[in-house]
Specification:
The complex is a heterodimer of chains A (167) and B (596). With 167 residues, chain A is α+β, with helices and mostly antiparallel strands. Helix content of chain A is 44%, strand content 11%. Chain A is built from seven helices and four strands. Chain B is α/β, with parallel strands linked by helices and 596 residues long. Chain B folds into five domains: 105 residues, Glutaredoxin (3-Layer(aba) Sandwich), CATH 3.40.30; 210 residues, 3-Layer(aba) Sandwich (Rossmann fold); 84 residues, Ubiquitin-like (UB roll) (Roll), CATH 3.10.20.600; 89 residues, de novo design (two linked rop proteins) (Up-down Bundle); 56 residues, Alpha-Beta Plaits, CATH 3.30.70.20. Chain B has 24 helices and 17 strands. In chain B, a hairpin with a 7-residue loop joins strand 15 and strand 16. Chain B is globular and about 90 Å long. The chains are: A alpha+beta (167), B alpha/beta (596).
Chain lengths: 167, 596
C-alpha cells in the first residue's frame, strides 16, 4: 500500500471541465461500451492521480456507482489513489534485470530515500515503484526517473543519479 | 534515388540508449551538408541485437555500427558519408573479417542460425510508413484472401500450416478460427493480445514497434475468415512507442482503404481500435483480457463457454497473440507447406525468443522450432559473460520452469518443453549462471504471482501466498525437510484447483527447480547454506588469512564495526555483528574476503 499522505485535493475548475469534455468524447469513440479504464487513464493524465473526488466525477458521468469505479481503479497497477512524486523513479524487477542485480539497486534507493516501493517522499519530490520489464533487457539492470533511462546501474551509482534531481 | 541509406534502430532498447538523439543529430548534419537528396535517414524497428545498442546500419556498404554515441555522428558523416571511409572502430566486431573487409550481417554468429518470419520487417522498414510495408509485399495477402479465397479456404491454409498460438499455450490457430467461424452470431470480434506481461519477454512489443501493419493485416484476414467486422488490439500502456506506431499505422491503413468499409472493393468491412491495458498480468489470460476490454476488473471467468462461442460483450470472439498474427500474411502468401517445412513435426515454423540475463548477446532471436537450447545460448547468444558456468535457462516466465545444463541439447518445441517441466510461454529465455540461486529465482517468480493473482479463486490467491512464505523459510534457513514435501503437495493443489492459467501454472517455477535442483534446496534446509551465495540470511563473509595483508581498509569501511585486527596482521569478521552488506568485499584490494 502506498503511504498515505495528507494532500488536500486541489483540483481546478479547468481540470474538471477538461475531464468532463474528454469523458464525453470517449463515449463517442467507444460507442458507449467498456470505457471505464480509458476514463481512469484520462483522469490520471489530467490530475496525476485518482482521488475520491475525481472518481466521483467519473462515476457520475458514466452512470455507475463509486464502488465500481474504485474497484477498477484499485485492480490495475497503473492507477494510483495517491499523488506521485515530481520525479517518479522506476526500477525494473523483471527477470532479466533481477538476475543482474536490480533487487540491490531497488533496496539502495529505498535506503537512500527512506521510502518503500509505492511510496512518496514527504516533500513529494520522489516516488518509487518497482516496474515490470520495460523491454530494454540489453541494458539490465535498468532504472528510470520520469523519462530518463539509466542502464547497467550499480547500487553505488544510485546516490549520484538521485543527486541530479535534488534541485 | 538515394546513394546511401542510414537505418537507425528506434526500438525501445536502443531508444533508451538515446538512439532518437542520434537520429536527430544525423538528420540535422545531413541537412547542413545539403545531402538530404542523396542520403536517406530512417528509423526502423528492433534489429534484435539489443546488447550492442544503439545500432545503425549504413547501406549500400552494410556497415553495422554498434554502441553508437551522439558524439560519433560527426565522425560517421565526415568519414563514411562524405569521404566514403567506413568508421572501423564503431563496427560490430563480428562483422569485420580477418582481412578487414565487412562480412554480411547474416553471416555473423548472432544472425546466422536465425530465420526471420515474424520479425522479417523489423529493422528493415520504417514502421511509420505504410508505403514501405506495401513495398515488402504488405497487404498483398489480404488482397489475395478477399479476392481469391473463401473464409473456409483461409482457415484450411492456416490449419494445414500447423501454426500454433505463440502466446504460451500453443493452441492450434486454425482450429480456434474454425470454432469461431462455426459459431452463429450477428456480431463477432477479432482481438489481439498485446498485453505482453512475462518479465523478460519483449518480442510482441518489438513486432508492434517494427512492423505494426503485419498485425493489422493479419487481423483483417482473421476477421474475414470468421465473419467479423470489428477488432481490438489490447496493448500494455507501458509500451508508449508501440502504441504510438500502432495508432499511426491504423490511421494510414484507414486512409488507404485497407481498414474500413468495402476493403479492396469487396463487401468486406473491418475496423480496428486500440484498448490500453492498465498493468495487470492476469489480463494476458484470454477471458480476463476480454473482461478488461469491457472496462471491468480484469478477472478471468470459467470456461466453457469458450470465447469462440461467448467472448467479448458476449459475442463469438477470437483472440491471438501478436507474434501469431505476424506469421499469418506470410503463410497466406507463401503457402501452408512452406511454413510447415520449418520446425518439428508438432511445432511448425519459427519462434521468437527474448534472450536475457547472464548472456553476451541479449536481444531478440527468431529460430526454427527444434533448434537446441545449446545453439541458442552458445552459438547465437555467445554464452555466459565473464567466463562463468551456465547453470540453467528459464523459459515461460512465471508460468514456466528452469531447464538445467544437462538438458541443454533438448530441441525446443512446445511438447519438449512441457515434457521437461517448463513451457514455451511467450518466449522469454533468461539465462542463469553459477552465481544465481535457484531457490531465490523460484521465490522471485512466486512473489510476482502473489502480487499479480487477481484474487478471484482461493487456490491461487491463498495458495501462492502460502507457497511464497514456505520459500521464504527456505531462503531464511528456517525450513525443514518436511516443508519441502509440503511445498510440493501444495504446488499440485494449486495447479489442479485454480480457475485460470495464471494459477494453474504459477507453481511451475517451484516444481521445476525442486525437481532439477533439489540439492540446492536441501543445502539451504540441511546445511543452512546457499551454494550460490545469494540468500543473505545464509551468507557468511570470511577473511582468508593467507591473502589478508592487514591493510585495515575493510575494518575502516565496515558500517557496524564487525571487523577487527591489528595493522599488517590478518583481520577477522565477527559473524554475530556482520550485517552482510558486502562493503568489505568490494573494498578489499587483495581478494581476501570471500562469501561462504
Amino acid at each position: 500500500m502506498a503511504k498515505k499522505i495528507d494532500v488536500p485535493f486541489n483540483g481546478t475548475k479547468e481540470q474538471e471541465e477538461k475531464l468532463r469534455a474528454q469523458l464525453a468524447q470517449l463515449k463517442i469513440e467507444h460507442d458507449g461500451k467498456g470505457l471505464m479504464i480509458a476514463a481512469l487513464q484520462r483522469a490520471q493524465d489530467i490530475y496525476g492521480y485518482l482521488p475520491e473526488a475525481v472518481q466521483q466525477i467519473i462515476a457520475d458521468e458514466l452512470g455507475v456507482s463509486l464502488a465500481e469505479v474504485y474497484g477498477v481503479a484499485t485492480f490495475y497497477a497503473q492507477f494510483s489513489l495517491y499523488p506521485k512524486g515530481n520525479y517518479k523513479i522506476g526500477v525494473c524487477l523483471g527477470t532479466a534485470c533481477y538476475v543482474k542485480g536490480s533487487g540491490d539497486v531497488y533496496k539502495k534507493i529505498c535506503d537512500t530515500l527512506k521510502i518503500e516501493g509505492g511510496q512518496c517522499t514527504d516533500d513529494l519530490r520522489f516516488s518509487l515503484d518497482a516496474t515490470r520489464c520495460i523491454g530494454c533487457c540489453g541494458l539490465a539492470p535498468v532504472m528510470t526517473v520520469n523519462d530518463d533511462v539509466y542502464g547497467k546501474v550499480t547500487p553505488e551509482e544510485v546516490e549520484g543519479i538521485l543527486a541530479k534531481y535534488m534541485n | 534515388m538515394f546513394r546511401s541509406h542510414i537505418l537507425v534502430c528506434g526500438g525501445t532498447g536502443c531508444t533508451s540508449g538515446n538512439s532518437m538523439k542520434i537520429y536527430d543529430a544525423l538528420v540535422d548534419r545531413i541537412q547542413k551538408e545539403g545531402l538530404e537528396k542523396e542520403v536517406h535517414v530512417t528509423k526502423t524497428g528492433c534489429f534484435g541485437l539489443c546488447a550492442y545498442g544503439p545500432i545503425m546500419i549504413v547501406y549500400p556498404e552494410g556497415a553495422f555500427y554498434s554502441q553508437v554515441k551522439v558524439e560519433d555522428v560527426d565522425e560517421i558523416v565526415n568519414e563514411h558519408i562524405i569521404k566514403g571511409r567506413i568508421v572501423t572502430r564503431l563496427l560490430y566486431k563480428e562483422t569485420v573479417g580477418e582481412d578487414g573487409t565487412i562480412k554480411a550481417l547474416n553471416d555473423t554468429n548472432f544472425y546466422k542460425k536465425q530465420h526471420r518470419v515474424a520479425l522479417r520487417n523489423c529493422g528493415v522498414i520504417n514502421p511509420e510508413k505504410i508505403e514501405e510495408y506495401i513495398a515488402y509485399d504488405g497487404y498483398e495477402a489480404l488482397g489475395k484472401v478477399l479476392t481469391e479465397m473463401t473464409p473456409q479456404d483461409v482457415i484450411d491454409v492456416i490449419s494445414k500450416s500447423g501454426l500454433r498460438g505463440r502466446g504460451g499455450a500453443g493452441f492450434p490457430t486454425g482450429r480456434k478460427w474454425q470454432f469461431a467461424k462455426n459459431s452463429v452470431g450477428d456480431k463477432k470480434y477479432v482481438c489481439c493480445n498485446a498485453d505482453e506481461g512475462d518479465p523478460g519477454a519483449f518480442m510482441d512489443r518489438s513486432i508492434l514497434e517494427g512492423d505494426p501493419h503485419a498485425v493489422i493485416e493479419a487481423m483483417a484476414i482473421a476477421a474475414y475468415a470468421i465473419g467479423s467486422d470489428q477488432g481490438y488490439i489490447y496493448v500494455r500502456a507501458e509500451y508508449p512507442i508501440a502504441v504510438q506506431r500502432l495508432t499511426i499505422a491504423i490511421k494510414q491503413a484507414r486512409e488507404y482503404g485497407l481498414l474500413g468499409k468495402n476493403i479492396f472493393g469487396t463487401k468486406f468491412c473491418f475496423d480496428l481500435d486500440i484498448r490500453l491495458g492498465a498493468g495487470a498480468f492476469v489480463c494476458g489470460e484470454e477471458t480476463a483480457l476480454m473482461t478488461s476490454i469491457e472496462g471491468h476488473r480484469g478477472e478471468p471467468r470459467p470456461r466453457p463457454p469458450f470465447p469462440a462461442v461467448k467472448g467479448l460483450f458476449g459475442k463469438p470472439t477470437i483472440l491471438n497473440n501478436v507474434e501469431t498474427y505476424a506469421n499469418i500474411p506470410q503463410i497466406i502468401l507463401k503457402g501452408a507447406d512452406w511454413f510447415a517445412s520449418m520446425g518439428t513435426e508438432k511445432s511448425r515454423g519459427t519462434k521468437v525468443f527474448a534472450l536475457g540475463g547472464k548472456i553476451h548477446n541479449t536481444g531478440l532471436v527468431e529460430i526454427p522450432m527444434g533448434t537446441t537450447m545449446r545453439e541458442i545460448i552458445y552459438d547465437i547468444g555467445g554464452g555466459c559473460p565473464n567466463g562463468k558456468k551456465f547453470k540453467a535457462a528459464q523459459t515461460g516466465g512465471p508460468s514456466g520452469g528452469c531447464i538445467p545444463a544437462h538438458l541443454i541439447d533438448t530441441p525446443i518445441d512446445y511438447d519438449n518443453l512441457i515434457a521437461i517441466g517448463s513451457m514455451m510461454g511467450s518466449g522469454g529465455l533468461i539465462v542463469m549462471d553459477e552465481d544465481n540461486c535457484m531457490v531465490d529465482i523460484a521465490k522471485f517468480f512466486l512473489e510476482f504471482t502473489v502480487d499479480e493473482s487477481c484474487g478471484k479463486c482461493t487456490a491461487c490467491r491463498i495458495g501462492t501466498k502460502r507457497l511464497y512464505e514456505m520459500l521464504c523459510k527456505v531462503t531464511d534457513g528456517t525450513a525443514t525437510m518436511e516443508d519441502l514435501d509440503k511445498m510440493e503437495e501444495l504446488c499440485y493443489y494449486i495447479k489442479e484447483n485454480s480457475l485460470c492459467g495464471l494459477g494453474q501454472t504459477a507453481p511451475n517455477p517451484v516444481l521445476s527447480t525442486l525437481h532439477y535442483f533439489r540439492d540446492e534446496y536441501e543445502a539451504h534446509v540441511r546445511d543452512k547454506r546457499c551454494p550460490a551465495g545469494v540468500c543473505k540470511k545464509l551468507l557468511r563473509y570470511q577473511i582468508v588469512a593467507d591473502k589478508c595483508k592487514g591493510c585495515t581498509l575493510c575494518a575502516r569501511n565496515c558500517p557496524v564495526g564487525a571487523i577487527t585486527g591489528t595493522v599488517k596482521e590478518p583481520h577477522v569478521i565477527d559473524p554475530n555483528k556482520c550485517i552482510k552488506c558486502g562493503v568489505c568485499m568490494e573494498k578489499c584490494r587483495f581478494g581476501a574476503i570471500i562469501k561462504a
